[in-house]
Structure of Multicopper oxidase protein:
Amino acid sequence: MGAKYEIITSAQDDAPRKPQWGSLLKAVSTVCVVLLCIGGAAKYYLHRPVFDFESGYCPTKGASAQPKGVQQRLPATVNYDLTIGQAWKNPDGGHWRPVYVGNSESPFPTINAREGDLVNIHIHNDLGLPISAHWVGVHHKMSATWNDGSSGVTSYPVLPRANWTSVFNTSGDWGLKWFLEHTSTPSVDGMYGTIWIRPSAERERPYHLISKDGLDIQDMMDAEETPTHMTAYNYQHREMPGLLAQLQTEGYDPYCFQSVLINGKGRVHCKPDELKEIDGKPVNSYGCVEQPSGAIAYDECKPSDGDYEIIETQSRRWMMINIVNPGLEHPWRISIDKHDFWIVANDDGFIEPQKVQVLTLTNAERVTILVKLDQEPQDYAIRFHALSRLQFLQGYAILRYPHRQTGRRLGISMPRPSQELSAMEPDGTPKKGVVLQDKFKQHPYPPAQPPQDADITLRFRATGAPDPYNPYITNCSLNGSPWQIFRGLREPLSLHPNDTVAEPNPIVKGLPVGSVVDIIVENDLPVAIPMYKHNNPTFHLGSGEGRFEWDNVAEAKKNRPKLINLQNPPRGYLHDLPAGGWMALRWKITEPAMTMFHAFRVRYFVLGMQVPMFEGDDAWPDIPDVVRNLPHVNFEIPEHMGIFD
C-alpha cells in the first residue's frame, strides 16, 4: 500500500519571514565551489587527449584534429628560476659529502611544460666555478643552438655569481628530457635534472597496438597526465675532481660506484656472496674488478639503510613511467617483479610498442613504459642491475599497490627485496624464458623512413693513445685528436665559424644545409660506448662486429643487404657503439646549427672523445649580442694541450 503523508502547517508559517542570511551565504558558497570544481575539471579534460566512445575518435588512429567540443590549447610561456649551488647530502645513508643541487635538491626539481610551449630557464650560478646546462634530446629551432649549453662550442660557460636564461621552443619535442652540466664533471656529483613535456593532444599515439579496449586506451591517455618519472643514477662517495686527480697520479679508473639512486634515494648494497668474478677477474666487496694499476679508492663495503623510492599505484589501472639514466657510467637492465610492461617511446618519441619483462637503458637514454596494474595488492621490486663488465651493482625502487603492511616495526628499514620474484639473476642476466627488449625493433611511430641516399659520409674511430707526458692517461678521440676539457673555458666556436682553430683538433666543417650525412663509427676498444648527437635524432641504419669493410653505407647495402636497414630503422639521440665493432647513423641537415657528436661515458668524454660540428656552415646565422657579450674569462691554450692541462 502506498504511504500517506500529511503536510502540517505551524503557526509560524503564516508569520512574516526574516531573511536567512546564513543559509543564503552557505548556498552561494556551495554553488561557487561546485562551479570551481567544474571549471577545473573542464580545464583538465579540455586540454588532455580523450577517447570519444560515441565517435570512436582517438589520437592513436592518426587523427589530426581534436574531437568535437574539445578546446585547442594555445602554447604558453613557461618561466622557471633555477639556482645552482652545493650542499652536504647523504642520499644513500652511507656517507655525507658535498653534492651539487638545483633549488636545494638533487636531482633538481622536475620542470613541467606542454608540447608547443616556450620554456625559459633562468639559471643563477651560486657556485665558485663556471657551469653550463645542456638539454639532452632537445632540438633547438631556428638555429638557436646557443641555448644548447655546450661550453666552448655553442656558448660561454656561466661564471660564478652570473646568470643566463636558456630558451627552447618545445614544438615537435615531447617526453621526459633531462639536463646536465657540459663544461666539466659536476653532473657526476649531482648536477642533473629533468623537464617533462607533455605530448600534444593532436600527436598520434600507438596505444591501440597494445589494446583495442576503449577503456584501456583512455586509461593510457589519462596516465600521460600523471606520469611517474624515475632517474637511475650511479653514485660515488667521493667527488669526481679527487678521483680524476687519483687517475693522474695512480691510474685509478673511476668506475666503482657505491649505490644506485632512484630519484635521489637508495642504499649501499654490498656484493652478493655468490658473485665472485667478472670474466675471470675477481671482484671486491663493492662488486668491482680490481684496478689494473693496483690503485685503491675505497675501504671495504659497508651496507647502509637508506630509503627506497616508493612508486604508488594510486588504484589506477594503467601507469606511465618515464625512466632516464643520467649516471654517465653504467647502463641498466630494469625489471618489475611479476609485471610485463610495454615500451612505447624512446628519447625521440613514440615507437611501435614492445611488450617485455626486462629493458636495457644506456647512458643518457630515456624510455617511456606503460604498466598494466593488475597484480595482487602488495609491494613489488623495481630492479636496476648494472650492465657492466667492471662492476656488479644493484639498486631498487618499490611499486606499491594500496595494502596494509604487517610484520615490520616502525623505524625499521625496509628489507632488501628477495631474489625470488626477480626476472633477472643476481648478475643481471635475464632468467630463462624472460622477454628482453630488442632495440633494433624500436621502429618510430608513426612510421618514418630515413633518406635513401647520403651526400656526405663521416668516418670516425673510437680509439685511444698513450699521453706523452703522463703514463696513466689515455688520450681518447673520435676524429683523430681529442677535444680537451679546457676548451670549454675558451671562446665558443660558433662565434667565428670561418676562423682557423689551432691544430690538432677534431672539428668537422663543410656540412651544407640540405645535405644527408652518414656517420660511420668504428670502435678500437673492447667496450660498448654510448654515442650521442646534439640537436637532432639520428637513424640507426646498422651495426656489426669488427671493421666496416666498405667505403660507405650504399656499398655495404649492396654487398650485405641485411646489415643495413633503410626502411624502418630505430631513431633516437643515443645509440650504442658495439665493443670492437661499428655503427652507421644518418640524419638530414635542415638548418644551420653548432652541434657535437660524442661519447656519453664520463671517462671517455673527459679524456677527449668529442667532435664539434658546424652543420649548415654555408648559411651561418647571426649570433645574438647577448651570447657574444656574456661575461667570460679569456683562457689561453696550454702549451702541451694535454687532457688535464
